[in-house]
Amino acid sequence: MTTVTTAPDGPLTALTTMTPVIRTGRSCFDRRQLPRDEYVRRVREVERLARAERLAAVVVVANAASPGAVVHLANLAPTAGAATVVVVPGGDVVLMAGRGGRREEPYQRDVTWVPSLLQRPFGADSVRLVLGERGVAAGRLGIAGLDDQVPARVRDRFLAEMGDFELVPVDRQLAELRRHVGVRARAVLGEATVILDDALERGARTFAMTGVPARAALAVEDELYARGCRDARLLLGRPDGSLRPFEAVDDRAGQLFACYAAAELLGYWSERAATVAAPGAGSRLGPDLERVVDAVVGGLRPGADPPAVARAAVDRLGIGEPVDVHVRGLGSELLDLPDPAGGWTDLQVGDPVSVVAAGCADGHLVVHGRPVAVGAAGPRPLRELVLPGLP
Fold first, then answer.
1. Residue 317's CB: how many other CB atoms inside 10 A?
2. In angstroms, rounded to a whole number, what is the distance separating the alpha carbons of residues 29 and 42?
3. Eight-state DSSP code of residue 19
4. Burial 156-175 (b: 16+ CB within 10 A, else e)
5. Nearest residue to 113 via CA among 95, 97, 127, 129
6. What is the pTM of this model?
């Protein structure tokens, strides 16, 4: 996530959504859009990484709040604790599903392509068991997620009990592999964007009829879940100028419906943001954020530096009011790409990114944003990347 802020404490400077304890949407293995060979290809990339780094195996751990690495390799988002993927070059792939228990196993087998599924938590005993069965007793072991996906006590115990292995962090390399979103995954992101567009349109219609921002946000959320998204996050502009998680419905009327919405479809997150004024509230919505977003999007070309593009766009437009702009990478996490790799220093063809901008109008938050894919000839709307013949 890259932030360009002309306001000292812009409303998007610390954009954070609330992670739900229970996801209420659809979770499945859609073999039409993301067939088994897509995941096999990703595992082969990890095997190539292992051979290049002389690693006997690669262990990837991810928790329920930030499951992208395991989703990327196994199409399983853990429901409790952490799940682990073990890749031994030339061998099979093992998925340790965590603490869900055997009652979860039928569901887990339905949503993952990995045949070797174990009901075991992350830990030295579990990893040693898997490696020992595949003839790996010592050597260099690649590890991703150890520093930020498990509690410190679990990490410290794992380090103490794996002393006969040389543990090699591969978080940066794995993040780089995940950055290269393939054609199929970009198509899923495109479908998620179509759903988000429709959901925000429904929210705008609801706001026009009711004048109640919370009712409009509920309509957005209903549409996202009805269209098959597994998880949805909404941030709603408040009269005090803040952008907060949508938690409950109240019937207070408002002049503006300012909504940031993110949705996960088949393991991939897209996001949108829009502001609608109530009838009779006036046409001016503070800073012309649509112009800001268009200007930033227009500069997102291969080799471009997103922070520089955003700063140049804001300066060129001469917006006289404070504006907060984000250029964000999209993928199998809502916030993590490309942050684990330290941020994008340059864009590449195919990168899916979104631009989100925020400002204030008479104390009310105004927000606007849309996602695109970087192309050789310029950006392309992400919603256009849906594969023909697929819903």
1. 16
2. 16
3. P
4. eebeeebeebeebebbebbb
5. 95
6. 0.89
For 328-344, the three-class secondary structure string (H helix, E strand, C coil) is EECCCCCCCCCHHHCCC
How many other β-carbons are positioned within 10 Å of the β-carbon of residue 290? 15
φ, ψ of residue 275 to 5 degrees: the values are -130, 135
The pLDDT assigned to 311 comes to 85
DSSP, res 18? P
Dihedral, 54, 168, 62, 75 alpha carbons, nearest 10: -10
Closest CA to 215 of 202, 232, 225: 202
Q: What is the pLDDT of residue 17?
A: 66
* Structural domains of the chain, with CATH: 2-24+181-385 (3.90.230.10), 54-169 (3.40.350.10)
CB 369 within 8 A of CB 381: no
Q: What span, in angstroms and rounded, lies between the C-alpha atoms of 169 and 149?
A: 13
Higher pLDDT, 163 or 124: 124
DSSP 159-172: HHHTTTEEEEE-HH
| pLDDT (0 to 100) of residue 306 | 85
Report pLDDT digits (tens) over 133-187.
Answer: 999 999 999 999 999 999 999 999 999 999 889 999 999 899 889 888 889 999 9
pLDDT of 243 > 90? The answer is no
16: Cα separation from own chain's centroid: 12
> How confident is the model over 343-375, as pLDDT tens digits?
556 888 888 999 999 887 777 788 999 999 998
Q: How many CA atoms lie within 13 A of 40 on its CB side?
A: 8
Which residues, 6 or more positions from 59, have their beta carbon under 8 angstroms from its beta carbon?
A: 84, 85, 86, 127, 141, 142, 143, 144
